[in-house]
Amino acid sequence: MPVMSSDDFTVHDDDCDEVGDGMPISDLPDEVNSIEDLDCQCWNKYSSVDEI
Ligand SMILES: [Zn+2]
Q1: Counting runs of H as helices and runs of E as strands, what totals does the chain give?
Q2: Distance in Å, CA 27 to ligand 1 centroid
Q3: Which segments carry the region annotation Disordered (predicted)?
Q4: Distance in angstroms (rounded) separating the CA atoms of residues 14 and 42
């Protein structure tokens, strides 16, 4: 499940070390249409957002 950081509102995978204090979200934000929209390296293990 994706987690949104409460510090900077970036979205991370739930096992990411960089998210710190975050809030689980059931769906990715509407502005995220592809893996390239997610900046963190924790998403590198996915090849498309459909796998998240
Ligand atoms: Zn991350």
Answers
A1: 0, 3
A2: 16
A3: 1-24
A4: 9
Ligand 1 mean position, distance from CA 9 (Å): 11
Q: Tell me which residue range forms the domain holding 37.
A: 1-52
Please tell me the total count of domains within the chain: 1
For residue 42 the two structure tokens come to 């924790």
The pTM of the full predicted model, rounded to 2 decimals, is 0.87
Looking at residue 48, its amino acid is S
8-52 pLDDT, tens digit each: 999 999 999 999 899 999 999 999 999 999 999 999 999 999 999
Rounded to whole angstroms, the Cα distance separating 49 from 52 reads: 5
* Residue 37 alpha carbon to ligand 1 centre in Å: 12
